[in-house]
Design brief:
- Chains A, B: GO terms for molecular function: DNA-directed DNA polymerase activity.
- Chains A, B: Keywords: Cytoplasm, DNA replication, DNA-binding, DNA-directed DNA polymerase, Nucleotidyltransferase, Transferase.
- 2 copies of one chain form a homodimer.
- Chain A folds into 3 domains: 121 residues, DNA Polymerase III, subunit A, domain 2 (DNA Polymerase III, Chain A, domain 2), CATH 3.10.150; 110 residues, DNA Polymerase III, subunit A, domain 2 (DNA Polymerase III, Chain A, domain 2); 117 residues, Proliferating Cell Nuclear Antigen.
- Chain A is built from 6 helices and 28 strands.
- In chain A, the strands form 5 sheets. Chain A has a 9-stranded antiparallel beta sheet. Chain A has an 8-stranded antiparallel beta sheet with strand order 8-2-3-4-19-18-17-12.
- The N and C termini of chain A lie far apart (70 Å).
- Chains A and B meet through strand 11, helix 5 and strand 23 of A and strand 11, helix 5 and strand 23 of B.
- Strand 11 of chain A pairs antiparallel with strand 23 of chain B.
Chain lengths: 378, 378
């Protein structure tokens, strides 16, 4: 194998692929990165067996030459050193050569690295997904679906299925749902597809977080294909493959209250700042509980009490309060997580009493929903 | 105690003072920050008993009012919460009130924090240093003295005296010297003082690191006063007090070779890049040893070998090589640390054979010196 490649192109691809590579894996060769050279371009592959990422650098694209002097072949390189080496090379181009004894030479300017490679034949074959029943959505929409839900997955392994995001595609609507049983985040978007539908596949939150980091915030589309145990996200130069979690995702729709007794309209940023301040004293106790009480004149009081340290209270003028008086306590962390992904100037909060879950939504928009269970404080 | 203060001024002062406060101290009240209000201004104090920092905010300065409605008094507040509270307050001004029951109220806009304070009488009194025999140097010069030496202090507690920087003021020259016995860094500057001199006081590296973080890179002067067990750095609004280490600092001048057998002139940046690359493969082994060999035609070869991973080699064209041929091995970390603080485009390296310490200096400038002991590799 041999090729000469633009260093900056290589750095970007290596960075993406590294997201799938873990130094703690049961399969030693997966600590390495596979490099495959074909006449049409170079493919880098990384995998931790949960996530696999392939990044493709075409030899030529839009009249620009990325890779030259290609002799086909493949090799696996230790991923621990390769990214730093590439990043610190002195010149703009890099020559990478692997000989039949798996000796790899990386050359740039007058610097030369001689590394021991591993046989690419020993690298596991990634499953080829059939892409007949795939659908497409813009990358920026996919990223917001992930950002607005994935933070609510469970981090506890006691119910593994809750560590994933539940994804459905039905009636032309793509829905992401995540819950750790104390809160729930859901978002749906319309998707233009006639033939594809699936009702509930659960993708590990970790996979979606990594995917979100790799994808650029563009309007280019991502192609998504689903099989019984894998999901593939494909862009022009990237294949991102994740396993799907086994098990049944709980029915969540019945958690969502249908009426409300107290309705608040409030500026998102102002509420974030108030809750943030109120949570300062409660950092280590009882999951940062803060309390919200409605007052006269469109004011709510936000308070928090930490016997040893002190007390914080703040009056916040909201746009409107309708319905019953309310005193409710909740985790400030859950509240802040939910508010921070709302992306609207003003939110509507529907409460159904101090002991029932409440819902945060933009006014007149049911495509996103954040639900939080209150905390019993007395 | 009561006052109303500009939030941003308070944030800056709190940040400085926090550098002296540790949550792990044997004296519980030192986990707090002392606040003292006088008619002329507010003083914040933090201390971990090694370092003490006082930051002063004058009530009025250059016609700008920083503090208003001052009622004199003092209180100690838990430092764990105070900085975050101040930083996240909603308005530009803050009112701080302490009552006779040590209850503290922090008010800004509609937000109010009620905290439990502690009696300022219980806070240890900082020693008042006599400032008769003080001298002054510009802040930026002091910062470069620290930066160019402090990295070379020992991090091992086996010889505590080496964890400090040795400071002397003699014959109008202020000298900083640090060594961990494998390398040595020294820098001297002329100081305009007639009456002050001291021969060897050793200030903890940690103190100097914190001081360097707090001081702005200005040409305003720092006043330095030394007693038998403390050193005080004083700027307009800051008192920084550090203890001095007990013990005798080793005589280091005899370590410095007087002749050299091989002299290299080389561009600092190019040498840094080469050494940096050569160290990539050796990260965990034998202190990142790299090897430098002189070649024909003003070239040196820099190599590193890591049997399991591979080998790196690079030819570097230097400006000149004079004297004997040389093959020498050294810690890439020590070399990079030294080169990175040199602040000159080109350095001169004086070698005295493969087994003797070598010296890095700017050409024709003896005010800074970096010495490194080689590593025996065969």
């Amino acid at each position: 194998m041999k090729f000469i490649i633009q260093r900056d192109q290589l750095i970007d691809s290596v960075q993406d692929v590294m997201k799938a590579i873990s130094s703690r894996t049961a399969i030693p060769i997966l600590t390495g990165m596979k490099i495959e050279a074909k006449q049409h371009g170079i493919t880098l592959t990384g995998s931790d067996s949960d996530i696999s990422i392939e990044s493709y650098i075409p030899a030529e694209e839009n009249g620009i030459v990325n890779v030259e002097e290609i002799e086909e072949g493949s090799i696996v390189l230790q991923a621990k050193y390769f990214p730093d080496i590439v990043r610190k090379l002195p010149e703009k181009t890099v020559e990478i050569v692997a000989d039949e004894n798996l000796k790899v030479t990386i050359r740039s300017g007058k610097a030369e690295f001689n590394l021991n490679g591993q046989d690419a034949e020993e690298y596991p074959h990634l499953p080829k997904l059939q892409t007949d029943d795939s659908f497409e959505i813009p990358t920026d929409i996919l990223k917001s679906l992930i950002k607005q839900t994935v933070f609510a997955v469970s981090t506890m392994e006691t119910r593994p299925i809750l560590t994933g995001v539940n994804i459905s595609l039905e009636d032309g609507k793509l829905t992401f749902t995540a819950t750790d049983s104390h809160r729930l985040a859901a978002r749906e978007v319309p998707v233009n597809t006639s033939n594809v539908k699936f009702s509930s596949i659960v993708v590990p939150g970790k996979s979606l977080n990594e995917l979100n980091k790799i994808l650029d915030d563009t309007e280019e589309t991502v192609e998504i294909s689903v099989t019984s145990n894998q999901i593939l996200f494909r862009t022009k130069h990237l294949n991102f493959l994740s396993r799907i979690l086994d098990g049944n995702y709980p029915e969540t729709s019945r958690l969502i209250p249908e009426q409300s007794k107290t309705v608040l309209h409030v500026k998102t940023k102002e509420l974030i700042s108030s809750i943030d301040r109120a949570s300062l004293l409660a950092r280590e106790e009882r999951n940062n509980v803060v309390r919200l009480s409605t007052k006269e004149n469109n004011e709510v009081e936000i308070t928090s009490n930490s016997p040893e340290v002190g007390r914080v209270s703040e009056e916040l003028t909201v746009k409107s309060i309708d319905g019953e008086e309310l005193k409710i306590s909740f985790s400030s962390k859950y509240m802040l997580d939910a508010l921070k992904v709302m992306d609207v100037e003003e939110v509507k909060i529907d409460f159904t009493g101090a002991m029932r879950p409440f819902i945060i939504r933009p006014e007149n928009d049911h495509s996103i929903l954040q639900l939080i269970l209150p905390v019993r404080t007395y």
